[in-house]
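Long-time lurker, first post. I've been practising inverse folding by hand and with some scripts of my own, and I keep getting stuck on stretches where the structure tokens seem ambiguous. Below is the full token string for one chain I'm working on. Before anyone asks, I'm not after the true native sequence, just a reasonable design that respects the backbone. If someone could post their per-position residues I'd love to compare against what I wrote down in my notebook.
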């Protein structure tokens, strides 16, 4: 229970059946009418016996049957896609190489076939050798029509001097749409004048929750945690019709869908750690165009992730990455005084990304990684490890 909302008085006929450690009402019931209310989040892993509580309500009190199957969700989405996109229409898919966009692309490709056209944008904010690695994975393991667009110079120019994380996300979201519009013009010529009006995104339910509420929404008690570039970061004059087949799913459910034989997304894609759409822009705190920040971060991140793989830890962790901090500290390297950058390492475990716990590494592992980073990455003399759970922190720093 990390929020400040509280029920000060109960409706008629209800009684309090549970309180928080601080005395706030967290569960009420009217057993005569079979009405129940909870003020905490039983659906998240941090809530003790949460799944058991929901299961008792759904299956014993409400009398529902556990018939939900991922195969049924897949078929529902295929039917919805064919209803939304006509038999002669084409669609563009924003493909990043991550789990979400790859599963979304595979799903829409199953519905549309060669009428789906994927575009991978190199925005200059990718990880170490990300572009070549992703291109190779697309070529070797997926039969998708993928066009690579280099928009790195354009993106970095637009971000020069921008430090606010919300401003970064909105600029990146708008520029992505500009790139997709340019790609649509080229594609329209290839298709004989038929302009694709649909844009496929790998939007997940947590993206929607954290980007809520939209302007004019009646959700006056909801707060925007951060505007995801593919939700709250989109321009108001968007002239695409969005196709978001994963919009109501969590990350673990997306992985389950991708693993279905009907889609057959390779395990190499499904096991990848999440990577934010704005890329390293939200892992360089402050101005991303500060000299050397992006290259420094890429090198640090590569050392960290490779160490996880080498020691068999990668698959135990939901997400791991490095953060470039806008501070310098004094150090001693090679018997000389240095005044260099500090970086942070972050690794968390989670089931759906809505809550997360920091991963408890053995101290010896952190010692080896820190030493390797400071010895190999020029301009870094201090490494810290983030031991903040979500909540109160988010998984990403921005």
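-- Answer (accepted) --
I ran through it position by position. Result:
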């Amino acid at each position: 229970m990390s929020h400040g909302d509280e029920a000060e008085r109960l409706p008629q006929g209800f009684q309090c059946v549970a309180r928080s450690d601080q005395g706030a009402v967290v569960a009420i019931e009217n057993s005569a009418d079979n009405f129940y209310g909870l003020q905490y989040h039983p659906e998240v892993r941090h809530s003790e016996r949460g799944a058991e509580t929901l299961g008792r309500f759904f299956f014993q009190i409400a009398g529902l049957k556990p018939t939900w199957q991922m195969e049924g969700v897949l078929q529902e989405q295929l039917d919805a896609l064919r209803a939304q996109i006509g038999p002669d229409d084409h669609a563009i898919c924003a493909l990043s190489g991550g789990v979400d966009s790859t599963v979304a692309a595979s799903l829409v490709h199953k519905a549309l076939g060669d009428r789906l056209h994927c575009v991978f944008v190199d925005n200059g904010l990718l990880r170490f050798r990300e572009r070549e690695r992703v291109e190779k994975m697309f070529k070797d393991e997926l039969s998708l029509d993928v066009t690579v667009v280099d928009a790195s110079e354009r993106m970095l120019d637009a971000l020069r001097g921008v430090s606010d994380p919300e401003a970064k996300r909105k600029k990146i979201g708008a520029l992505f749409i500009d790139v997709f519009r340019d790609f649509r013009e080229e594609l329209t010529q290839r298709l004989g004048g038929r302009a694709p009006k649909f844009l496929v995104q790998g939007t997940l339910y947590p993206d929607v929750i954290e980007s809520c509420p939209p302007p004019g929404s009646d959700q006056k008690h909801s707060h925007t945690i951060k505007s995801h570039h593919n939700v709250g970061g989109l321009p108001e004059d968007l002239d695409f019709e969005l196709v978001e087949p994963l919009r109501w799913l969590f990350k673990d459910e997306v992985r389950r869908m991708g693993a279905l034989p009907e889609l057959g997304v390779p395990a190499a894609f499904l096991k990848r750690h999440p990577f934010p759409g704005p890329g390293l822009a939200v892992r360089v705190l402050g101005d991303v165009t500060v000299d050397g920040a992006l290259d420094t971060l890429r090198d640090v991140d590569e050392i960290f992730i490779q160490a996880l793989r080498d020691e068999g830890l990668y698959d135990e962790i939901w997400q791991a990455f490095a953060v470039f901090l806008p501070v310098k500290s004094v150090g001693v390297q090679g018997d000389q005084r240095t005044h260099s950058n500090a970086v942070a390492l972050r690794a968390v475990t989670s089931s759906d990304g809505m809550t997360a716990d920091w991963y408890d590494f053995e101290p010896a592992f952190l010692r080896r990684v820190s030493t390797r980073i400071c010895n190999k990455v020029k301009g870094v003399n201090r490494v810290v490890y983030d031991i903040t759970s979500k909540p109160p922190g988010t998984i990403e720093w921005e």
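A couple of notes from the structure itself: The two ends are 23 Å apart (CA to CA). Residues 211 and 232 are 5 Å apart (CA to CA). Happy to go over any region you disagree with.
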